[in-house]
Amino acid sequence: MREKCCRQIWFFKVLFFLCCVLQFLDYTVSSAVEEDNTGKVFVYGRAAVGTIDEDFICATLDWWPPEKCDYGTCSWDHASILNLDLNNIIFQNAIKAFAPLKIRIGGTLQDLVIYETPDQKQPCVPFTQNSSIIFGYTQGCLPMHRWGELNAFFSKTGAKIIFGLNALSGRSINPKGEAVGAWDSTNAESFIRYTAQSNYTVDGWELGNELCGGGVGTRVAANQYAIDTINLRNVVNRVYKNVSPMPLVIGPGGFFEDAWFSEYLKKAGNSLNATTHHIYDLGPGVDEHLIEKILNPSYLDQEANTFRSLKNVIKKSSTKAVSWVGESGGAYNSGRNLVSNAFVYSFWYLDQLGMASVYDTKTYCRQSLIGGNYGLLNTTNFTPNPDYYSALIWRKLMGRKALFTSFSGTKKIRSYAHCARQSKGITVLLMNLDNTTTVLAKVELNNTFSLRHTKHVKSYKRATSQLSWDSDGEVQREEYHLTAKDGNLHSQTMLLNGNALQVNSMGDIPPIEPIHINSTEPITIAPYSIVFVHMPSVVVPACA
Ligand SMILES: *[C@@H]1O[C@H](CO)[C@@H](O)[C@H](O)[C@H]1NC(C)=O
Ligand SMILES: *[C@@H]1O[C@H](CO)[C@@H](O)[C@H](O)[C@H]1NC(C)=O
Ligand SMILES: *[C@@H]1O[C@H](CO)[C@@H](O)[C@H](O)[C@H]1NC(C)=O
Ligand SMILES: *[C@@H]1O[C@H](CO)[C@@H](O)[C@H](O)[C@H]1NC(C)=O
Ligand SMILES: *[C@@H]1O[C@H](CO)[C@@H](O)[C@H](O)[C@H]1NC(C)=O
Ligand SMILES: *[C@@H]1O[C@H](CO)[C@@H](O)[C@H](O)[C@H]1NC(C)=O
Ligand SMILES: *[C@@H]1O[C@H](CO)[C@@H](O)[C@H](O)[C@H]1NC(C)=O
Predict the structure, then answer these.
(1) Does residue 30 form part of some domain?
(2) CATH code for position 280
(3) What is the pLDDT of residues 331-389, one digit of tens each?
(4) With a 6 A CB cut-off, is 289 part of the ligand 5 pocket?
(5) Could you tell me the distance, in angstroms and rounded to a whole number, from the CA of residue 341 to the centre of ligand 4?
(6) Is residue 210 flagged as an active site residue?
(7) 34 catalytic, yes or no?
(8) Distance set, CA 406 to CA 40, 152, 243, 345, 443 (Å)
(9) 3-class secondary-structure state, position 177
(10) Which ligand is nearest to the CA of 173?
């Protein structure tokens, strides 16, 4: 026993030595690459890997009252559905700029909301705090006059609404913390009927918030949730019998768990149009190391596991439902001030948009449009935070088809590409997570996929082809370089090609203008910068 152990130790010593040698070699090689500072973006252009909705960009509005605080900070102010200033001109312009922006109305308190419909007998009063009950609040109510104001606002700003319904209605919570019993759809049905009769357009009705899987606060079993979803489908079919297009039916609006989602999607079948999952992959907002996570490529990569698993579950279930990210705020419990509302968050946010697209996510709802520390808009004065502009530039440049993209050179570059929105070309998104190295990148088309089914493995050089436009001196491309003001990652001001993005005194959203670069030049990606490159003349089969 002992001898075996020592022999093992000896063996490991040799292994350790070999590792050191290899690591040294690896180190010399990679530092040589770094000194070189160049890299290649490979874009697979034969076919799209994922397809996103025309209105992929979505943001949420929540119910939290001003009393909502986390870790001693109260970051919601008047950002609730119930008290937002709908007359604010910046707010209106910010939504209009997306033409259209999808807005998902929901959040924790949605499962405590009653709707002031004619048949509703309970008084229509706001939420009040009570720490001894679920979610810490009494039930609140949506007055129909407020619903009317909201719909006038949505119609005026061109927002498309996804409304999250109270899915706890009619259930009771057992001693194990499970919500049991069937969903009582009575109040929801009269609210949906009232909405349809008032000619308010709702694009989707979503059932519940974070009640799936292990749940947050409480949970509902997958089998019951499927029954309730079919019930909602029947309600929608009844109410919108003569209306076209019929709103979508969406669920469950919670965290992905393989077994729960598998059962739910199998049983809810085609009653569902979209399945929504939530993402808070950065952990709690109180974490002082959020920035280190955001700037760590391996950390960012982890979320791909969820996207991949969900994609497989959908495939296996034979549902027609597509996948949406229904709510994603990065850091939970309202995010973190000067991180979630600062330049650095765009590395996380744009990486999420890119990754979600690759896994065929149709819509991505950011928590939040306004409210908490993760708002796209400043909670007190409605001015856009850096992520607002990141979303807007995405909206302007990234088309529906996501292309498989990889980067060789350094792991600190994140790379994504889509068919361009405004041309037959492509748009490449590159992010430099490194604080000191400027990277020079060339785009090459990777045609490896086309060789996948042939027996001959062609050489690397043959499999990739230099872009033909590269030698064409006439061709230019458009670049959008995003950096933090004063190089400060915590800055709430983002620079586009060196100029601050700011609303003017009229409350107008600034135009998003590129610089034009000769296509023979490599793409320069400065430290801690984000670059969108629109290449109108790079035409690949996937985008033709
Ligand atoms: C809070 O809720 C509990 C349980 O329903 C109730 O007994 C208590 O009176 C409530 N407290 C307040 C301040 O309303
Ligand atoms: C809704 O639209 C229909 C058809 O255009 C119209 O007859 C009805 O009066 C409208 N209802 C309201 C409340 O505006
Ligand atoms: C939503 O699902 C229903 C029921 O399967 C289907 O009839 C409808 O066409 C779907 N809507 C969209 C936009 O796919
Ligand atoms: C909103 O903007 C003001 C003015 O720039 C700033 O002082 C404040 O910190 C911002 N609030 C939040 C929550 O970011
Ligand atoms: C860059 O980041 C590294 C690793 O986080 C750190 O050690 C170094 O001090 C940083 N350099 C600058 C110039 O900020
Ligand atoms: C080209 O794309 C294929 C397909 O995924 C990938 O496996 C390969 O690594 C890519 N080649 C390069 C050089 O990036
Ligand atoms: C682009 O660069 C090439 C090579 O340096 C040069 O010959 C050509 O004139 C440039 N084209 C434009 C439009 O500046």
Answers:
(1) no
(2) 3.20.20.80
(3) 999 999 999 999 999 999 999 999 999 999 999 999 999 999 999 999 999 999 999 99
(4) no
(5) 9
(6) yes
(7) no
(8) 8, 45, 45, 22, 10
(9) coil
(10) 1
